[in-house]
Amino acid sequence: MNIQKIALTLTVGVALLSNALMADDAKARAIMEKVDARDEGDTLEQDLLMTLIDSRGHKRTRNIKSYTKKHGQDDYQVMFFKSPADVKNTAFLTYDYKDKNKDDDQWLYLPALKKVKRIPGSDKSSSFMGSDFSYSDMTKTNINDFNYKLLKETKVRGHAAWMIESIPRSKKVLKETGYTKSIQIVRKDNYVISRTIGFMRGGKKKYMDAPRIHKQSGIWIVDEMSMTTKKGKKTLHKTIMKFSNTKLNKPISDSQFTTRRIQKGL
Amino acid sequence: MKQYISFLQKFKWLIAIAVPLTVFLLALNLKHLEIDGSYRIWFEKDSKSLTDYDNFRADFSNDIGVSVIFKDENGIFNKKALGTIQRITDAFWDMNHVDRVDSITNYQYIHSDPEHPDDVLVDDFIEELDEATPEFLEKRKEIATTDPIVVNSMISKDGKTTMIFARLDVDDKEGENYTVEIMKNVRAIIDPEANKTGYKFWLNGGPVSTEAFVKIAGDDAITFTPLVLIVAMSLLYLLFRRASGAIVPMFVVLFTFLSVLAIQVILGYKLNNFTANIPVFIVAIGIADAVHIYSVWLTKRRDGLGNYDAVYESISKNFLPILLTSMTTIVGFATLTLSKVVPIATLGIATASGAALAFIISIVWMPAVLLILKKEVKPVTVKEGTSLGNLGYGDFIVRHDKKLILFFTIIIATIGWGLTYIKVDSNVIRYFDKEVEIRQSTEFNMDNLTGPLTYTIIVDSGEKNGIKEPEYLKTVQRFYNDYQAAFPKDIRHISSLLDTIKRYNKIVNQKDEVPENRNLIAQYLLLFTSSLAQGMEITDKVDFYEQKLRISVSTNIVDTTKDLEMIQYAQDWWDKTPYKATVTGQAVMYAFMQKDITETLIYSLSLTILIVSLMMLFIFRRLKILWILLLPNILPVALVLGLMGWLGLTVDMGVAISGAIIIGVAVDDTIHFLVKYFEARKRGLTMAETFDEVLRYAGKAILFTTIVLSGAFSIFAFSTFAPNQNFGIVTAAALVIALITDLFLLPALLSVFDNKKAEEK
Description:
CATH topology of chain A: outer membrane lipoprotein receptor (LolB), chain A
Structural class of chain B: alpha+beta
Shape of chain B: elongated
Helix content of chain B: 55-70%
Largest sheet of chain A: 13 strands, antiparallel
CATH superfamily of chain A: Lipoprotein localisation LolA/LolB/LppX
Oligomer: heterodimer
Largest sheet of chain B: 4 strands, antiparallel
Order of helices and strands of chain A: HHEEEEEEHEEHEEEEEH
Radius of gyration of chain B: 32 Å
Number of helices of chain B: 22
Distance between the termini of chain B: 34 Å
Strand order of the largest sheet of chain B: 2-5-1-6
Helix content of chain A: 10-25%
Strand order of the largest sheet of chain A: 6-5-4-3-2-1-13-12-11-10-9-8-7
Largest interface: A-B, 41 and 41 residues
Mean pLDDT of chain A: 88
Shape of chain A: globular
Number of helices of chain A: 5
Distance between the termini of chain A: 58 Å
CATH class of chain A: Mainly Beta
CATH architecture of chain A: Clam
C-alpha cells in the first residue's frame, strides 16, 4: 500500500465516520427507535392477496397464506401459495436472523418435484415473489445501519406525522436495501410507518403506502399496502398487498416452521 | 416579354434588394435548425415495421442501450479486466436513464454447490474480486466459456472479448434529446477507464448510432455545402471568366436553399442525414436556370448588344426552356414524395419546392441584377473563328450519324446487361464508411464476439400463461436447433427464457431439457423471480401475462437479401406451428426498408419518365420521334445502374434518389437542346447548321452545367456516409453520360430519323 492509498483510505474513512456521526439526528433516531420497538405480536397468521399491476394497468393476482413467529430475536416465516393453480402448494420458509453476521436461511418447496431446496445467501434487495416489494421491504431493518434526519413535521391522512430521511451507513446496507436513501413518514400517534419513498440507483423511486391499518389487541396491523415503482412521473409497475383473516398471537407450534412441514401443504 | 423586361427595368433596384432581404429575414429561422439522427426517421408513423417494434417494446422492456466491448489478449479472467468490468458495470448503474446493466460480472449465475446438492444458488458470476484466487478465476473462465447462455454473447469462446450492456429506459418516441446527455455520461465513465487500463473500448448501440448519424449529417452539411458552392463558383468563373458569372448564379441557388431550409424549420422539420443535403440538391437543380440565362446574356453582350437588349434576348430565348425544365425537375422530385422512406419523401417536397423557387428567383431577381450591371463587356469578334459553332460539330454528327448510333447501341447493350446484377442494400451499419468508429466497433464485435445485429422474435402462445406449456417450450427449442442449423455461419447466438428454465431443470432436477410438467416450469419461474437481484427482473424476456416469449437472435452483418431470407425463414417456420410469431427489431426494420428503397427507385423513375414523356409530347408535339427525345434522359440512369451492377456496387438510399436528380438534369439538357434545335429547323437551316447553332446557344450552357454539377457532386465521394458517397459518384457519372448522349447520340438519332422525315415531306 503506497502513501497515496493510505491517504485516500484515511480520508474516506474519516469522511464516512464524520458522516456517520454528524448526519445523524438524535430526535429522528429516538423516533425510529420507537418505531423499531413497536409491538408487532409474537405470532401472526394472515391471508395475503397480492396483485401485480404493470405500466398499462394489467393485473395478475396471487393468494398466499402466511404464518410468522418470533423466535427469540429472530423471525420465522412460512408462506404457502394457494393460487395461481400452477404454483399451488409451493412454499417458502424463511429464518430471518437478528445477528448481522449470519445470512438468512430460506427454503423452497417445489410440489411439482416434491423436493425442498435451500436458497442460501439470497440477496435481501431481491424481489419478494416477483413483486415490487423486496425482501428487505418486508422485514425490519436494523436501525444501527442508518443515519436518520428529521426533515419536517407533516400530516398523513389527517394524522400528525414526522418525515424522516434515512441514509445507509455502509455500501453493504445500500446493497441489501437497494436504496441510496429513503424517506419515511411516521405517524406520531402510533409510530406506524405510513409511507416511504425509496431512492434507487439510476433514478428510479419506490413509493410505499399503507392506506389501511387497524388496531387489534393493542397492536397495529397493516391491512393493505402498496408499492409503486416509478421513474420520473411514469409508473413502471405496482404491487398491492391486502391482508385478511388476521389472527394475532394465536399459538403456532415451532414445527410449523420446518422443511418437513412445508412439504405437506396447507 | 417586352413589357416584362421594361417592368423589371423600372423596378430593378427594388427587386434586387427586396429578394435578398426577404431571404435574409426567412433565414433568421435557421438558428432553430436541428438534426435528428434517430432510427425512427426512416419509417412512416403507422408503418408495420414501427408498430410491430413499438408493440414489442410495450410488452417487453426497451431494447435500446449502450454496449461496451473490449478485448484483453491475455483473456478477461484476470483481476485487471474483471475489475474494469465491475467498475464500468457499477458506474453505469448509477447513470441517469439506465434501466439495468448486464455484464459477465453480474450475470445471474444459477448453480448448485457440490457439497450441498440441495442448494440452489443464484449469484453474481463474479462478486468478491479481491478474494479471488487464480484457481477460482481459471475455473470461472472454464464455466463461462462453456456456458451457452453467455458464450458468444457476453463473452467470446476464447474468453478474451467481453461486452457490458446498459439498457436504457428512455422513450424514443418523444425524440432523442437524451442522446447527448447519455453519451457525455458514458464517455465520462469510459475515457478515464481507457486511460487507466489501456483497453480500447468499443461503443455501440442506439445513442452511439444516433450520435454518429447526427455528427455525420452535421459534418456533411457544414463541410460539403460551402465546398460545393466554392467548387461550383470557381468552375463558373473559369468557364465564364467573369466574376458576375460566378457570383450571380451562386446567389440564385443560395437564396433558394436558404429559403427552402428556413421554410422546413418553420414547418417544424428537423434535418437528418438525408435532408442535410438539401442545399446541395438545390445547387444542382437551381444552377442550370441561372447558367443558361447568364450564358445567353454574355454571348449576346459579346456579340455587341446593349445590356438591356442582351437581358431581353436572354430571357425571351430562355423563358420557355427554363419553365419547362423547372417543371420536369419539379415532377421528378415530387415523385419522391411517394416513397415510404420518410426522409426521401421529405427531401422530395423540399427539392420540388426548391426547383419552383429557383425558377422564380432566376426569372425575376437575376435579370433585375443583370440590368443593374454596369461593367462593359468587350465585344468579342476574334472568337468567331474558334467558337464552338465552327468546330465542324454539325458536319461531324451528320457524317457519322449511323456509326455513332451503332457505337452507342453496343455500349448500351453491354453496360445495360449489368442491370441484372444489381443488388439493393439497406443495411444501415454499412451506410457508415469503414473509417467511422461505429462501423469499426460493429465489425470488431462481429470479428471477436458475436453477431452485432439482433432479430427479436416474439412468439405468442395464444393464451395467458401459455409459455409455461412444455409443448410450447419444446417448439421454441426445436426452433433454436433448426434456425441455427439453417444458418450456421450467420446466426451467432440465440437466447430466451427457455435457457433459464432449462438451466433450473438441470440444476434442480439434473435434466438438461425442457421440463415435462407445466407446474414445474411455473415453480422454476417463481423461484427465479424471487432470487433475482434488484433490477435484474425477467420482464425483458417474457410479457406480463406470460403469454409471449422473446427470442433474441444475434446475427452477422450480411447483405440485405440474406437478412430477408433469414427473417423469412423464421417467419415461415413459426407459420407452420400453432403459435404466432412476429419478427422485429431495428435490424429487421432496416432489412424491410430494402423493399421501400427499391420501390422508391422504381416508382419514382417510372413515374418521372411517364410524366416527362407526356410533357415532352405536349411541348414538342412529335409522337413519332418521342422515343428519341426520351432516350437521352433514360440512358444515363440505366447506364449508371448497369455500371454499378458490373462493379458490384449496391443500390442504397443515395442511389435511389439520384435517379430523380439525374433524369431532372438530363431532361434539362435535352429540353434546352431540343428547343433550340426545333427553332433552328423551323427557320429552315440544314441539319449541320442546326447542330452548330444548338451547340452555340445551348451546348455551352449544357456543357457548363454538367462540368459544374458533376464537379460539385464528386465532392461527396469524401463523405463518410455511404449513401452520400454513392449519390455523389453516381450522379456525377450519370451527368457526364447525359452530356455525351445529349451531344452525340441525340443529334445522331435526329439526323437519321428526323431528317428523313423532313426529306420525305
